[in-house]
Amino acid sequence: MAATDAPPQPTPTRHRPPLWRDVRVIRIALQVGFITAVLATIWWLIDNLGTNLERLGIRRDFGFLDQPAGFTIFGSDFAATSTIREALWVGLLNTLRVALLGIALALIIGIVVGVMRLSTNWLVARTASIYVELLRNVPPLVLIIFFYLAVLQTLPGISDAATPGGVMVVSNRGVWLPGLDLGEAAGAFALTALLALAVAIGVSTWRRRVHDATGQPARRVWWAGGGAVLVLAVGHLALSGPVALSVPVLEGRTVDGGILLFPEYAALLISLVLYTSAFIAEIVRGSIQAVPKGQVEAALALGLSWFARLRRVVLPQALRIAAPATGNEFLNLSKNVSLGVVIAYPEILRVGRQAIGNGQPAPQILLIVLGAYLAVSLALSLVVNIANRRLQLVER
After folding, report:
1. What are the tens digits of pLDDT across the range 274-316?
2. pLDDT digits over 351-361, tens only?
3. Cβ distance 369 to 346 under 8 Å?
4. Nearest to 355 by CA among 44, 80, 7, 13
5. What span, in angstroms and rounded, lies between the C-alpha atoms of 221 and 214?
6. How do the domains of the chain map onto residue ranges?
7. Superfamily assignment of 94-167+264-304+318-346+389-396 in CATH?
8. Is the per-residue pLDDT at 329 higher than 90?
9. How large is the C-alpha radius of gyration of the chain?
10. 3-state secondary structure of 86
11. What predicted TM-score, i.e. pTM, was given to this entire model?
């Protein structure tokens, strides 16, 4: 019996689900609905704010920025007749003075303490542990108030100020440190400093090439530092002393010379540096422990000293690991500068509050303050991200 051909199978037809059951349509609809709800909420808030400002007779523009501030800012030459725009600019500069110097100091202290925590010396390791555990578990606001009220405000008055070593003046009105007096040729000396930096980089590159070619010790730090100092010394002599050391001198109730650190500035800077450095120390410690053990063993096999192993093998790899988390701590420090408002440090939030207290519109001023801190944070993030990319290994 001949086999009969099988009947052709019907081609299955694909039916699209209705729109209300289509997953792709539902996703798009939910996203559009969410964005619409957010925009509607923002529009409602802006409209409600505008209505209330109009009802209260408060201006809605930014023309008030050109009006006289009506208050002074201690520690600066800002006068009451200056504009509010200039006052906010002074507040922003004061914010940056704490943030940038604090970041540099916190990074240095954090690296040192992080390395100390891994020391084989019991006393050094325990001291670093106490430092970290004590500071990172105390709110930064408490540290600021403590250093301002319990430390700096308890220093002797200006009449009985201490003068350690004859180069400092310490009182409850501030701390005067040695500074620099800039002469007329200070600009030319700044160019000399740039030339010294270029010489240091060139000498360092030359010593590295000599080391690669001959195997002789490079000693780049000593050679580069010596070249830079030589250029600076020659420039200083050629320009007839464009920069002079200014040592503070106490005369009665006044101090001549030096650099004054106001108690508010010192308390805020010290507190934020100590608090942030404790977190950076833990980041550095964890990053060092994350370096593969074989790297350290290879350095030992090459006969490198402890410091050479740390500087040439361990820290370069550890800092590559620590860079992202350390950048976050930089951002936290810059934003924590706003806590200086509690001790009347004239950062931008404090200056903005003074302007609001003098009858200026609060929404616009707070919007400017918000934008200023946002700009500082984004700028720091950009720098940290660039540095992080430079530190990462590129696979070839």
Report:
1. 999 999 999 999 988 888 888 877 877 877 777 778 877 888 8
2. 999 998 888 88
3. no
4. 80
5. 18
6. 94-167+264-304+318-346+389-396
7. MetI-like (1.10.3720.10)
8. yes
9. 30
10. helix
11. 0.81
